[in-house]
Amino acid sequence: LDVGIMSGKFKDMMEHRFPLIPGVDAAGVVEQVGPGVTQFTRGEEVFGLFFKMVQGEGTYAEYVVVPAGGLVARKRRSTDGRASVVHGRGRHDESTRRHRPDPCGQRARMGRDHDDAMRLSGPAAHGLALADECENCMRHRDRGTVMSSTTQSTIRWQTSLEEALRQAHADDTLVLLDFFSPT
Amino acid sequence: LDTVTYPEASVAAIRTHCVPLQVNTQDGSGAAVVARYRQVWTPDVRVLAAAGFELSRWNGYLPPFEFVPQLLVALGQARLRLHDEAGAAALYEEVLTRFPTSAVAPEAQYYLGVARYKASHEGADLVEGWHRLQTRYPESIWRTKQSFIER
Hints:
The complex is a heterodimer of chains A (183) and B (151).
Chain A: H1 2-6, E1 16-21, E2 25-29, E3 45-49, E4 55-57, E5 63-67, E6 71-77, E7 83-87, H2 94-97, H3 104-107, H4 114-121, E8 127-131, H5 161-171, E9 174-180
Parallel strand pairs in A: 1-4, 5-8
Antiparallel strand pairs in A: 2-3, 3-6, 6-7
Chain B: H1 9-12, E1 18-24, H2 31-36, E2 44-48, E3 54-59, H3 64-81, H4 85-98, H5 105-120, H6 123-136, H7 141-145
Antiparallel strand pairs in B: 2-3
Helix pairs in contact in B: 3-4, 3-5, 4-5, 5-6
């Protein structure tokens, strides 16, 4: 699904809000939990699926805030020392459901060692923080892969090598040379 | 590239890094440039110094989310070859921050260590950068390329 969204395959099938951060799956380490979230603690390894019909606030970012209800703990030691998988869905009272203006600024500050997430499940992992169940609380600290809704190129291509080199020399910059074959 | 990749605003931002030049390989108008740079197959993207010599290159179509980090890595390579280590490091850091899951991110991590080492001449800068390859991109060929330090 992620590949399909990023390739534009679903562009006409669901709303895309730009600039668009793709990503449905996520895995990482909890940095902080919001009020009312009791089933997870900081430092816990978690993963989850966060599909939304409106594409734009996905998980391809180093830090994300996600609803606790969509998370599952990767492994949690039971009292007798055996590893077990614990489902993340837990209770949430009225205070966690209610949306308040910019609650994430107070309730779910994010930040963590990115290496931990990478060790957890490879280069696609991201740091996670938990918010409550309110969809409007989704916030992203790092924009990750950002795409735009612009449909017309705004690149002003030079067509003369000599002119491009002259301009690069004047601007103390480089030339990007694109050889192309018209279709 | 013209249909999918270049129209994206994030890709169009390349104009802030370099002067973009397109050469048509089919209608004869670019024959001299094709010959000069021994161009064979499109898409073919090169980064040139203002003096005209080639600093880095890649072939093949890339969608926007891979094109931008590839471009940043190519520009980083160009800056490194021009002995602008700080400029190169900044470009590699941008790849690792904005596109940590892109195909070229391991290469950016590899050369970030190189760029920092070339600037500081401190072995620790190189080893630290390469150590991150072991933890972040353990399956990457770029991890293999520094694996001699793991012995």
